[in-house]
Design goal:
With about 70 residues, the chain is an alpha+beta fold. Helices cover about 25% and strands about 30% of the residues. The chain is built from two helices and three strands. It has a three-stranded antiparallel sheet with strand order 2-1-3. About 15% of the residues are buried.
Amino acid sequence: MPKFEVSIYNEEVRQLLKQGDKHEFLDDDWANINYLEFMAKGEREARVKAHSKYPPEHGYVIENISPVVKS
């Protein structure tokens, strides 16, 4: 099964940091893009898996999904 890299950040954390506050549960690192890998049949399945683990209703935003190319 192919591997996909998902670029994701948390908008709630970004907004709180801009205001000088901290998120109640998440590290400040979530204001930046985090690169996570998911095994999936395709980009759509990778998105579904990412949304399942990092739901948009909790402020997570997927910026990009790309296949991991073997070198």
